[in-house]
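Postdoc handover notes: sequence design on the structure in folder B. Input tokens:
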């Protein structure tokens, strides 16, 4: 079971604050870039898929499924549910694979579409995209520190997972319920 610390030293607090500040700046920079960048309209395409939206929806769905693996393996690592000794390895590799799934999607969204505001769903999706990568940056920075209170990494991971699920709900679920389960 992971060690749970309750005392936060001033140095630890500054490290947490620095990571959150950098993550917030990442989110803002992505939003500003997406808003100022002239969308190119160029889209990604992977052989076998019928459209760009299908590619993005299926990659995001795979990322969410890997996010669920992340959630379950985190519960195993923290001793909340029983699991194998290799749950930490499962957690790290499922996270890496999830990042590989979302990178082409975010590159396409930022480069081809930019930050969109033409409807509530699209605006929420754009905001969640910025939040997700800010939360991702924050968590990755926090993982470099060894003296954090036991609640910090789970909160960062929960924010990251929540952002990913929100992105899926505002894009892939919308696509699958509007267009259908097409490839």
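Designed sequence:
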């Amino acid at each position: 079971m992971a060690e749970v610390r309750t005392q936060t030293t001033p140095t630890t607090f500054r490290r947490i604050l620095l990571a959150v500040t950098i993550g917030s700046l990442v989110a803002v920079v992505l939003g500003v870039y997406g808003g100022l960048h002239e969308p190119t309209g160029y889209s990604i395409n992977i052989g076998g898929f019928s459209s760009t939206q299908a590619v993005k929806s299926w990659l995001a769905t795979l990322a969410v499924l890997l996010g669920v693996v992340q959630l379950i393996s985190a519960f195993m690592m923290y001793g909340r549910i029983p699991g194998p000794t290799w749950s930490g390895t499962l957690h790290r590799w499922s996270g890496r694979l999830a990042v590989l799934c979302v990178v082409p999607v975010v590159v396409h969204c930022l480069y081809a579409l930019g930050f969109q505001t033409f409807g509530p769903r699209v605006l929420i999706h754009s905001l969640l995209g910025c939040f997700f990568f800010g939360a991702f940056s924050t968590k990755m920075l926090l993982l470099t520190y060894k003296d954090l209170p036991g609640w910090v990494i789970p909160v960062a991971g929960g924010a990251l997972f929540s952002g990913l699920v929100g992105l899926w709900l505002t894009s892939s679920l919308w696509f699958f319920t509007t267009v259908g389960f097409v490839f």
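Context for whoever picks this up: The longest helix spans residues 10-36. Don't rerun without checking with the PI first.
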